[in-house]
Amino acid sequence: MENKSLIVDSQNSVLVIVDVQERLAAAMPKGVCERVVEQITTLLIAASTLDVPVVVTEQYPKGLGNTVIELKSKLPSETKTIEKTSFSSNRTADFTLAVENSGKQQVILVGMETHICVLQTALDLQEQGYQVFVVEDAVSSRSKSNQYNALQRLRNAGVIITNLESMIFEWLGDSQHPEFKTLAQLIV
């Protein structure tokens, strides 16, 4: 068993945006969707700046719509968007392949809903040997109690629960990083 760092490394991570779709976003409590989209947008800018690959999933887009336009417009051109019907993204061959092909061992999860697709994806990825980080302030559920329950379950299972600011500063690693000033300005 290899010794895994508890700190995320931009050279060894892939950012996965889970199901931030039009109809699902509209079902979130007032203000929650805006906060999550804002946090994910910031992570997308940081990921793009640091060459962290991005994978996007969409749960049954025919029924839930596509990824919200605010995020879609910020995705790197090579971003793979994977349609799925299974709640765990990891039970979709295209997703498994996209994560494998990234060559990364750390998977950063953000999106909706924390207690369904994010939870199941995180647990399946961890079972496969990936080191999984869930960005607490970039995930959401329709119910706060479901979100808290999911985050507690993930913690208890050994998934690392982190936040946007920690992620960005861990990706940077040092204030001497050439992109430090650029990315530090994203934190408000």
Characterization of this structure:
The protein has about 190 residues and is α/β, with parallel strands linked by helices. It has one domain (about 10-185): Rossmann fold (3-Layer(aba) Sandwich), CATH 3.40.50.850. About 45% of the residues lie in helices and about 20% in strands. The chain is built from 9 helices and 6 strands; from the N terminus they run βααβααβαβαβαβαα. The protein has helices at about 20-25, 30-50, 60-65, 70, 95-100, 115-125, 145-155, 165-170, 180-185, and strands spanning about 15-20, 55-60, 80-85, 105-110, 130-140, 160. Strands 3-2-1-4-5-6 form a 6-stranded parallel beta sheet. Helix 6 (about 115-125) packs parallel to helix 7 (about 145-155). It is globular, with a radius of gyration of 15 Å.
By secondary-structure content and strand pairing, the structural class works out as alpha/beta
How many helices? The count is 9
Name the helix and strand elements from N-terminus to C-terminus, one letter apiece: EHHEHHEHEHEHEHH
What's the mean pLDDT score? 95
Q: Give the CATH H-level superfamily.
A: Isochorismatase-like
The CATH architecture = 3-Layer(aba) Sandwich
Strand content: 15-25%
* CATH-defined topology: Rossmann fold
Shape, please? globular
Biggest sheet strand order reads 3-2-1-4-5-6
Q: Give the domain tally.
A: 1
**Poorly predicted sequence stretches spanning 5 or more consecutive residues:** none
Cα gyration radius (Å): 15 Å
Helicity level: 40-55%
Q: How would you sum up the major sheet?
A: 6 strands, parallel
Number of strands: 6
| Overall CATH class | Alpha Beta
Amino- and carboxy-terminal Cα gap:
39 Å
